[in-house]
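DM between two lab members

TW: hey, do you still have the Two component regulator propeller entry open?
JB: yeah, one sec
JB: this one, 709 aa:
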Amino acid sequence: MRSKLFLVLFIIHFSFGTYAQETKFYQDIAVIHGNAEGLPQGNIDLIQIINNTPIATTSSGQFEWKDSKWSSKNIASKSVASPSFKGLPENSGKVLSWATYGNTTYVGCENGLYLKTGKNKWQQELPYDENYSWALKEVAALTVDSNNRLWFGSKEGIGRLDKGNWKLYTGKEGVPYNHFTSAASGQNGQVWFGTKNGAFRIENDNFFYRSSRRWLPDNHVNDIAVDLEDTAWIATKNGLAQIISKEMTYAEKATHFTKQVEERHNRMGFICQNHLSEQFNINTSQLAISDNDGQYTAMYGAAQAFRYALTKDPEARELANRSFYALKWLVDITYEPGFPARVIIPVDWHEPVNEQYNREYNRRNQAKDPFWKDIFPRFPLSDDGNYRWKCDTSSDELAGHYFYYGIYHDLIAETKEEKEAVKQVVADVTDHLIRHGFKLVDYDKKPTRWGSFDPDYFNSIWGWDQRGLNAMMMLSFLNVASHVTGDPIYEEVAEKLREEENYDIYAMHAKEFFPPENAVPWDNNLGLMSLYGLINYEQNPERLLMYRIALENAWLHISKQKNAFWDGLYGAMAGFFNQKVDEGFFKPEELFIENPLFAKATIDRYYKSSLDTKYMTETLQRIPLDLIGYDMDNTHRLDVLLDPTPGQASGMGWGNDTYALPIDERGHVRLDRDAFVLHDNEGNGYAEHEGTFYLLPYYLATYHKLIAP
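TW: and the structure you got?
JB:
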């Protein structure tokens, strides 16, 4: 633990260049203390700060935090026993908490909050404000903050007394849970509350909920203390948490995540998550593979390309180039020209991949999905015999490839070799799709399960729900190919698909949101990454107006997810459109002449984007430095309002009726997931996710001037 804490603090204080003019914010970091750090196993009854030194009280005695370890020591400290409060009414119930506010003693009881008015005389406090009037129950938390305000936590919610006036908070105002155990005050007006299911901090009327192993060793909080540096020490039934709040900049956080990716998520140039052989221990990480190695590598490459465009840092250019050539390798290694593999692994990979994906595996999947591809081996051998590559590639991979092809061409490719390489690979993949009737065709000469972009599929009962997304993606691929290669054939093919097969009309509704099983979140990644190339490189003003409508339709359905990547893509593309308007690209009187009002009305409506960047900055600032996947259950929370729309299946649909919870309070940190899922588990402590999910939205948003650096 000492090395872990040192690493955390080193990361926070790491300085690269001068950040004096950059945005600064506070990053919460949790350090878990238990037996390995010198505490006895199990319950921590009390935590105190004496002379700015944490003192933990347990059934085994008291322990002092000194020199980065806990040592048993006989320390004089306040008694944990409740003082005697004579004269309280008989019906007040058990005393649960107490505090001195000014010259008045307040006592929280099972059946109310009481203040002392004289010797053995008490008056019940009935707090009220403009919204609520309460007779309190279970007042288990009382504290006075550094701004001389009294706070309580009760069954009804929390309250703050300031200069004789109460302000009351319930779930509607942000209180996540209301079975309180304790409270403590920080140095700058912050107040911490402990509950039987996590802890939370309230700061300037903003709530920060800390639960699950991401933040605490156990959710039942016994006590909280805050030291002079505003570090919270939280005693639980199974150990202690130290939550540090450190000032940092976006760039410092990006440095941390680039280091994390390079050290633990780089497999031969491919970016991947990893597996932890010991739960919660990043020192036991082992590189893994996924179906989307290509997409995740493309996203990392795009992040580094935007970084290079902003900073001209040679490291960023090197990493962007490495990512591109990894993607090109995925195409070059396969048997079918222009067909990109999902994954490349050494032939001596530690998992028996083909044995896992055998014929029986295919039969089991076909029982659930008749279109499941029965292909074996799923990992063919490369021509040189040194590698295996995974087939049955999907639209997810293509979306990632093409998203990066355009960005790499525009921001990185400088040498003749680089320019020729990107032109060649884009032509190879696009020609493959055209040659096979707009399908991804595998080495068995049959289409892959999720690689159909053809009109027959769209007009079938099986493909109608995907035609909006896949038609838009195919047009995007052709736009990127036209831009990168300069070959007019790709625009000719796109024109045929638009005029004869209505692909541009389908593209206006690029995402299905009903029934709920069609509202899969990763399709938002595919859709917005593909729209980026489609809108950025579109040269026809009528079609650009159509695609701007498609963008708004796709984004509005996900605008409350607090997804910094999706918000950033939307903001960038809305910016492309606004720039075209400002440049006079659109001449409304010449567009859609069969309806002369349409073009002007569309321009007027969509010129101003509906993006609120405060949710981008919240997510970027609150993405945890710890990207281990934890099991997090938010189904008990009072501050979540569920969407009552009928027809939603369990675990699928639209979830919250308000904005999503902050990302550091959710069960996932990947920005290709449904932020409204209230109980999620991404590895249960046995997987660490890659920092691309900070790097890409940060550099994208900064490059497109959506946020200040």
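TW: got it. Residues 416-435 form the longest helix (20 residues). The domain at 1-248 is CATH 2.120.10.30 (Neuraminidase).
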